[in-house]
Amino acid sequence: MIANSKAVHASHTSDTCNPCRTSMGRRLAAAVPLAVLLDAMLVSSASAHVKWFCGYDVAGQPRGLENVLCLDFELLIGISVLALLIGSLAEGSTLGAAMLRSLDWMTYRLHRHTELLFRAGCGFFFVAIWAMGNILLTPELKPDSTLIGAIQLGIAAGMLSRRTMPLSALGIAILFAVAAWQYGLFHLADYPVFLGVAAYLALAGMQRDLLGVRPIDVVRWSAGVTLMWASVEKWAYPEWSFPLLINHPSMTLGFDPEFFMRAAGAVEFALAFALMWTPLVRRLAALMLCGMFISAVIEFGKIDAIGHLLIIAILVAIAVDDEPRVARSAILAPAFYCVALLAFFALYYGSHVLLMAPSIS
């Protein structure tokens, strides 16, 4: 059910890596403004998907919550809440209105061609993974049939006409189902964004919405869910990334790997949640995430570029979306953020027990 793979780095014991045994210097580092930390992490491995570059073991026991929910983690989450509150307050101000007008002015040409941009990105992505070979949907997912390449080319060809986009959506759903069959539902929980892309293509191709929800909003939510899930994985399995950090020590920015992975997860979760919030907050978050993913391409090369191409296209579409401002109380942002954080912890750890326990036993 799970791909034959193994962890490259053994998990730290709770005695040697108890997250609560942190130095005062690291605790102070956790208290720096989130914007400063984010700016420093734009070229970090936070945006590199570890399963494409390192060994992993999804059946392995994730780190216990008593080791995840430590003082460093609480400080980082507190900074995230503060940043979201500030962003929400700014959105309701005159400054926020001016920033939205400026974004609209700078991106209106791209916004007019969002669907074309999305179709081009999807077409290029599926041609690229077909050309690379031995890729089902993402670099670590390997096909077991020669028909996969034909489906990938068919999906790319479907981008040439709006009428055939629903057929491409069906092709993506088939590839996702094949991957789930081979690798298991827990592994494919990393990639609900592909289902979001399929939904966008089907809805845009038929010129419909989903119960009043625009196609761009469907794929936006799928991207946010994907990135929040990946953030929890950084906290649950930080040891998967340690070999990557050893090979690229400059990415830790001087932090020890344990703290760096907690910070990387906190930054990514906050920005992913912001994708689901009000227009200004989500558009700025999309631009920041674009910076992170594009910077990772410079560091990790072709595999990272191909693997993240679709999500970069989605983030660009979110950044140029000129939906009007939504009146929403600023205090709701921290409240919903905390609810989302608790929900994703429960989903991740709960689904691991339910879906992976049979393979462990």
List keywords for this structure.
361 residues, 66% helix, disordered N terminus, mainly alpha
Description:
The protein is mostly helical. The chain has one domain (32-46, 65-355). It is 66% helix and 0% strand. It has helices spanning 24-30, 34-40, 65-68, 71-91, 94-112, 114-132, 147-158, 165-183, 185-188, 193-206, 215-236, 242-247, 257-274, 279-300, 302-307, 309-319, 332-360. Helix 8 runs antiparallel to helix 10 (193-206). The longest helix has 29 residues, at 332-360. 45% of the residues are buried. Mean pLDDT is 84; it is low at 1-46.
In short:
This protein has 361 residues and is mostly helical. It contains 17 helices and no strands. It starts with 23 loop residues before the first helix and ends with a helix.
Helix vs. strand class = mainly alpha
How many alpha or pi helices? 17
User: How many distinct beta strands?
Assistant: 0
The coarse overall form would be: globular
The mean pLDDT is: 84
Question: Strand content of the residues, in percent?
Answer: under 5%
Total individual domains: 1
Any idea what the radius of gyration is?
A: 20 Å
The portion of residues assigned to helices is 55-70%
Distance between the termini: 13 Å
Low-confidence stretches: 1-46
Q: How would you sum up the major sheet?
A: none
Q: What's the oligomerization state? A: single chain
